[in-house]
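Contributing new records

If you add data, match the layout below exactly. Sequence lines come first and carry their own label; structure lines follow with theirs. Keep one chain per record. Anything else will be rejected by the validation script.
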Amino acid sequence: MRTALALSLLALACGDDSGAVDSSVRDSAFPDSTVPEETITLRTLVEEMATLDPLMTDLPYVTLQASSWDRRSVDPSDATTSGWYANTDKGHYQDEVRVDGRREYVMLEAEGAGAIVR
């Protein structure tokens, strides 16, 4: 919802009443690149956001996830912070290794570069 609103405001700020983006704004934003000459409107932005076809392509990356959970959180009828709502899952890692004499913790082991996001 916030993304759609931000794109709507951007289209209105950069465009005329029709929502078309002013070419001088586009050219100043992308001075050295080849930008398609098609008109960008609020409608084309929303259609691009709502189109799921790009999600079906082969991406040059994969998404991996590692997660921990508090092992005390098993019984929903125990509605306490030491039962179902227990949340002390910190410190649980896949592995602990020594690198140059210091301890490092392995959160997820995978090949290649990556990013840790929450």
